[in-house]
């Protein structure tokens, strides 16, 4: 890994001293210097801080050699627009399998969702999660189940679990697709995603509940994208008739009232 030299290049390009950056990350200068010189490796929390501060995806920071970057790549970093939106690098994805080496669907309990944005790539975090399988899902894709909190996405209610498919290439997401979006700041959110990566490397996230305002997140803030497949709910969704069904029901009701009226008139005679 080229983390040390990458961090050093980012710091120098920003015109910061080791002392300044160490203070920002809550480190001593000697500890930070050790990371740049390769004497020690930063922990996951520090790596996330570095990724956020320099607007560089964590996977890129860990896997790429910034000494080989082109002028265009450095320009994207300088503008805060660098993100691996096509998934050309393998995104960090830890998977749990059964005794036959088949992928299982990890269920993230509601009480564990707060730690997901840190533990999503940690095998120790995921191996204690409950797992299950759905035989009708493709064996060639990766699925995970996420808890839903709040009322922003009816008919999916609080207490439901969304089963979603891992998305490697974020450019493949079509606008209007419901997705689980995992971000640095908000953790797990379930939203309708509008893809603006080609224009400005952002997603617009919208709720089906119109009381909630849409908002935008930059791709650099996104850790994972999971495309909605189905959901498990403790409640039946509310049944609403469309205009055709409503007209038909009213017609049948009027017919019954008319027949009842005729019957009463006959009895009166």
Task: Characterise the protein shown here.
The chain is an alpha+beta fold. The chain has three domains: 3-78, 434 Repressor (Amino-terminal Domain) (Orthogonal Bundle); 105-232, Umud Fragment, subunit A; 242-269. The protein is 33% helix and 20% strand. The chain contains ten helices and nine strands. It has helices spanning 3-14, 18-24, 29-36, 44-54, 58-63, 71-78, 116-119, 123-126, 197-200, 243-268, and strands at 105-107, 131-132, 143-147, 161-166, 177-183, 187-196, 202-206, 215-218, 222-232. A nine-stranded mixed sheet has the order 2-1-3-4-9-5-6-7-8. A hairpin with an 8-residue loop joins strand 7 and strand 8. Helix 2 packs across helix 3. The protein is elongated. The N and C termini lie far apart (97 Å).
Q: Could you tell me the strand content as a percent range?
A: 15-25%
Q: What's the number of extended β-strand segments? A: 9
Q: How are strands sequenced across the largest beta sheet? A: 2-1-3-4-9-5-6-7-8
Backbone structural class: alpha+beta
**How would you sum up the global shape?**
elongated
Count of individual domains? 3
Give the CATH topology of the largest domain.
Umud Fragment, subunit A
CATH architecture classification name of the largest domain? Ribbon
Largest sheet geometry: 9 strands, mixed
CATH class of the largest domain: Mainly Beta
So, the CATH homologous superfamily of the largest domain?
Answer: Umud Fragment, subunit A
Low-pLDDT segments: none
């Amino acid at each position: 890994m080229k983390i040390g030299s990458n961090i050093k290049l980012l710091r120098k390009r920003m015109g910061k001293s080791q002392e300044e950056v160490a203070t920002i990350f809550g480190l001593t200068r000697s500890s930070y210097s050790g990371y740049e010189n390769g004497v020690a490796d930063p922990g996951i929390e520090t790596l996330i801080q570095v990724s956020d501060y320099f607007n560089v995806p964590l996977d890129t920071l860990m896997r790429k050699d910034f000494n080989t970057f082109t002028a265009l790549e450095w320009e994207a970093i300088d503008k805060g627009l660098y993100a691996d939106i096509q998934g050309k690098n393998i995104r960090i994805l830890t998977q749990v399998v059964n005794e036959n080496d088949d992928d299982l669907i990890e269920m993230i309990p509601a009480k564990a969702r707060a730690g997901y944005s840190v533990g999503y790539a940690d095998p120790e975090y995921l191996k204690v999660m409950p797992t299950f399988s759905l035989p009708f899902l493709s064996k060639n894709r990766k699925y995970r189940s996420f808890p839903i909190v709040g009322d922003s996405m009816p008919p999916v209610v609080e207490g439901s679990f969304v089963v979603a498919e891992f998305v490697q290439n974020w450019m493949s997401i079509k606008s209007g697709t419901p997705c689980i979006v995992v971000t640095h700041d908000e953790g797990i959110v379930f939203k309708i995603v509008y893809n603006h990566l080609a224009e400005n490397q952002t997603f617009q996230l919208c709720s089906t509940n119109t009381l909630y305002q849409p908002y935008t997140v930059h791709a650099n803030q996104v850790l994972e994208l999971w495309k909605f497949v189905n959901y498990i709910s403790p409640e039946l969704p509310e049944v609403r008739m469309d205009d055709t069904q409503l007209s038909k029901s009213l017609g049948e009701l009027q017919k019954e009232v008319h027949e009842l009226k005729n019957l009463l008139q006959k009895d009166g005679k």
